[in-house]
């Protein structure tokens, strides 16, 4: 697979009086993958995300996005077009008076010609299922709808990568599902690379790969199935475990002999059932 | 402190084009010393409901009784201050409201606003900070140097320093990481138990509502759809789904196990441990049956 982001020996601190909040981070993101970044609050996840589209510049190390170096100012707009970012608070990312204006804003900034803009606008709104809301005022929408409009604004710029920075954490369960569904569609149909910073492990277990951050360091990386075998380590760095794993451990403690394989609830139910039928 | 709603209606923007019926003839009772959770879809009226309990909103019609304070529609607001002293309100992201130069000063601000003397306010602030677990060595530091979870604790200490009899929590764990969430919930359970405080929690997390509360109020369309103990409310999967709510994840998991076992009778279980017991029970039951 092709590398789309290369982070190499990155360290960052907010100022010289402060300690490093990111320490010697090294990883790649592959084109078309869904990568989740998990870690306790203050572990450096969000700061790391801001390094990936040049919003902040590391003091040490480099970040390449689609071949461009983020510290190279000549290409910063190209990088920002390639990497769209959805933030946590749906109320903090609106500029337009209507949904239509808001989605168009990014394209105007990037000098997209008007006829192309009109076409992309309706396409982007259709993709996030907000086409019926083009003339509405963003502040009258629900949190989930607002985040979908934010995603449409990004999609309209035809990025290669979308970063969700706890984009669902302020939403109700319904809104959360809407967003994940929308991004999954984009991931599948458009081959969009997704980087999701999240506390929601039920979401994270569906990703291709996970990075675990703790105290500014990248302490683990791997496929969810591998990674969630290190339950003790994850607990130690303040992370929760996926429901199926907690359930499996509780059952094992009560004397039910189960393998350590199940990651999804369905797998655990199947295993329980196989075990039970052979008893 | 007993809290009672009698035929309470609230209309936003009355006599404007944006007029909206947010509470529709609500009657309910929150017993003194209970832990009540309020759940419901966004826009169901949860927040409007709890904002009436400490007088942030006044009813358009009807009557609210909280302890010995009575709030009626169309009344002048003289008793609101008394009500606000008795009912603390922890808003969403309360740490955004911190503003003082030191933690201790910030916590004193609340009680001093209610007319408490400097020395008494300091005493209460110290008590509250101990309750929420902020060590004394931090008290004279700036609240802005704390972590998000700690800042939230300081903000909660500020509400507790007014010594309320009831406390309203609006999505108190939003934005915290799993460890921070757990610590926050433990704190409320502790306040409820140790200080016999009446706790009213608005939440989107069904598991939290199920595990921590004695009573659950399900709001829909400005009205309570169900009021009852979690063991009752969370068995009504169909009704909950119809108003856009899911059951706690333990119940959803049990449903999957039951579907395999072709069993229908649902047993409420909300903690992982209880759920494991029920799973074993189901497995054994089926085995014995065969």
UniProtKB/TrEMBL annotation, chain A:
This is Energy-coupling factor ABC transporter ATP-binding protein. Keywords: ATP-binding, Cell membrane, Membrane, Nucleotide-binding, Translocase, Transport. It is found in: Cell membrane. The keyword ATP-binding applies. It is a peripheral membrane protein. Residues 5-240 form the ABC transporter domain. Pfam families: ABC_tran (PF00005). NCBIfam families: ECF_ATPase_1, PRK13635.1, PRK13648.1. GO terms for molecular function: ATP binding. Belongs to the ABC transporter superfamily.
Automatic annotation (TrEMBL), chain B:
Keywords: ATP-binding, Cell membrane, Membrane, Nucleotide-binding, Translocase, Transport. InterPro entries: AAA+_ATPase (IPR003593), ABC_transporter-like_ATP-bd (IPR003439), ABC_transporter-like_CS (IPR017871), ABC_transpr_CbiO/EcfA_su (IPR015856), ECF_ABC_transporter_ATP-bd (IPR050095), EcfA2 (IPR030946), P-loop_NTPase (IPR027417). Gene3D superfamilies: P-loop containing nucleotide triphosphate hydrolases. Signal peptide: none annotated. Residues 3-246 form the ABC transporter domain. It is an enzyme of class 7 (translocase). SMART domains: AAA. Its EC number is 7.-.-.-. The keyword Mitochondrion does not apply. It is a peripheral membrane protein. It is found in: Cell membrane. Belongs to the ABC transporter superfamily. Energy-coupling factor EcfA family. PANTHER family: ENERGY-COUPLING FACTOR TRANSPORTER ATP-BINDING PROTEIN ECFA2, HEAVY METAL TRANSPORTER. NCBIfam families: ECF_ATPase_2. Forms a stable energy-coupling factor (ECF) transporter complex composed of 2 membrane-embedded substrate-binding proteins (S component), 2 ATP-binding proteins (A component) and 2 transmembrane proteins (T component). ATP-binding (A) component of a common energy-coupling factor (ECF) ABC-transporter complex. This is Energy-coupling factor transporter ATP-binding protein EcfA2.
